[in-house]
Design goal:
Helix content: 40-55%
Order of helices and strands: HEHEHEHEHEHEHEHEHH
Number of helices: 10
Radius of gyration: 16 Å
Number of strands: 8
Shape: globular
Distance between the termini: 23 Å
Largest sheet: 8 strands, parallel, barrel
Strand order of the largest sheet: 1-2-3-4-5-6-7-8
Bound molecules: 4-methyl-5-hydroxyethylthiazole phosphate, 2-trifluoromethyl-5-methylene-5H-pyrimidin-4-ylideneamine, magnesium ion
Strand content: 15-25%
């Protein structure tokens, strides 16, 4: 699979990101609207745990599998292995990408969060398949983010790694993500602009159509 294409509209969601919507309905709408990859990120206040979390992950995975959308698990490597996910995303304070690679094998996708050129270098050397950089803008979805970074770190990493897959994250909406692509990101990862949109399918379609324009202009 082409990782750069998978990163175009990378939806990330947990049950507590969906407001009043039913989470599985939000995911199906996002799939119908054209997301290119999905990250199961069940964490934070009132997140599911134990068997309920596992069952919710399986239910999300089933919807992604039916649509051939790659399914990535955030943080929880053991859960990813247990349900046969397509990959894992880890942050700087999670398992090292090299250890995750040993556990997952070479045919799985490993993503790493990075905030600086240094962290990008380390992730790439450790065998990451893509890096997530941000937060580009302020966001209230993740409460412990690093300071708002803008697109500078993406630009720096892109200058050193001309072809390495990079996805931008943090406060991204259809009307503000273009600078991240112009700075060198291959795609955008989104939580609230889809998960808490009044119509998640239409919100996804808008992001996808805007991405087509931005990519063509870039
Ligand atoms: C998980 C994560 N990492 C950096 S910002 C963020 C939250 C992104 O959520 P939103 O797309 O709603 O700003
Ligand atoms: C904190 C995160 C940063 N980046 C990403 C991704 F967009 F997938 F790269 N996912 C996360 N959970
Ligand atoms: Mg993490």
């Amino acid at each position: 699979m082409n990782i750069k294409e998978a990163l175009r509209i990378y939806f990330i969601m947990g049950s507590n990101n969906c407001g009043s919507h039913e989470p599985l309905d939000v995911l199906q709408q996002a799939i119908d609207g054209g997301i290119t990859m999905f990250q199961f990120r069940e964490k934070g206040d009132d997140a599911l745990t134990g068997e309920a979390k596992k069952q919710f992950a399986r239910d999300c995975f089933r919807l992604c599998k039916q649509a051939n959308v790659p399914f990535i698990v955030n943080d929880d490597v053991d859960l990813a292995i247990e349900i046969g996910a397509d990959g894992v995303h880890v942050g700087q304070d999670d398992l090292d990408a090299g250890v995750v690679r040993q556990k997952l094998g070479s045919d799985k996708i490993i993503g790493v969060s990075s905030h600086t050129l240094q962290e990008s270098k380390a992730a790439i050397e450790a065998g990451a398949d893509y890096i997530g950089m941000g937060p580009i803008y302020a966001t209230t979805t993740k409460l412990d983010t690093n300071p708002v970074a803008g697109t500078k770190a993406i630009q720096e990493t892109r200058q050193h790694f001309a072809q390495f897959p990079i996805v931008a994250i943090g406060g991204l909406q259809a009307d503000n993500f273009a600078p991240a692509i112009e700075a060198g990101a291959d795609g955008i990862s989104i939580i609230s602009a889809i998960a808490s949109a009044p119509n998640p399918k239409e919100a996804t379609e808008k992001l996808a159509s805007t991405m087509k324009e931005v990519i063509n202009d870039a």
